[in-house]
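Morning. Coffee machine broken again, so started the prediction first thing and wrote up yesterday's gels while waiting. Chain of 267 residues, entered below exactly as on the submission form.
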Amino acid sequence: MISLRRVFALALRQFYLYRGSPVRFVPLSMWVFLDMVLWGFMSRYLNHIAGPGYNFVPALLGAVLLWDFFSRVMQGVTTTFFEDVWSRNFLNLFASPLSVSEYVGGLVVTSVATSIIGLAVMLIVSTFIFGLSFFSYGIALFPFLLVLFLFGIAMGVIGSSIVLRFGPAAEWFIWPIPAMVAPFACVFYPLSTLPTWMRAISRLIPPSYVLESTRAIAAGHPADFGALAIAATLAALYVLGAGWIFTSVYRRAVRTGLIARYNAESV
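Came back before lunch.
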């Protein structure tokens, strides 16, 4: 049985870590702030050269905001895991009665907190500087964020599993994951732009449904809640699969002794 006390203890540990080093808050807000400014002015420029009839701010800047939210969620999980790897604290945690499910739960809770900070910064910049109104998305905004949150958690847990399986040096395989998924997620262009083989992959990725719906709403069409239901189902399956992968990799690392690579004496 999962102990919520242990889950939130892991999140509280991260809170004390950030409180003791305020500079850690800078990456939570700086990169999303720069993204919003860059794409905000790009959207304004496209509006200027395209003339009246289409507003690129909700279509392009809104898509960038949603994609950055996904990236923040994923990195909230992986960065918390990496903190244990970098500090060589991973074995210390599992020498306690902490279970794998509780540890992953702590990663998720920490990701919720850090991604909320990033989302707040993005909403402030996009709304008050570039006039992006999220009321234009209607109630669809909430399932948009939920799907991206679940998919971000899944990618973060899978990324952590890769590092757990192949060692701390595999960290560099994790940072490019959002960039590798972006072409199939159709962040900046419609699904119809892709060749047939890429569309088949895109239909297996929940963000593609969210971002297609974003563009549809920006063009004056209603949100496709049927597509969003498919996206939510896929995202839930990804989360379950990611949890199974992490648990399997952890058990194998313990059984084979590979987990010793995280010991302070052997790293």
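The CA atoms of residues 87 and 124 lie 34 Å apart. Going to sketch it on the whiteboard this afternoon.
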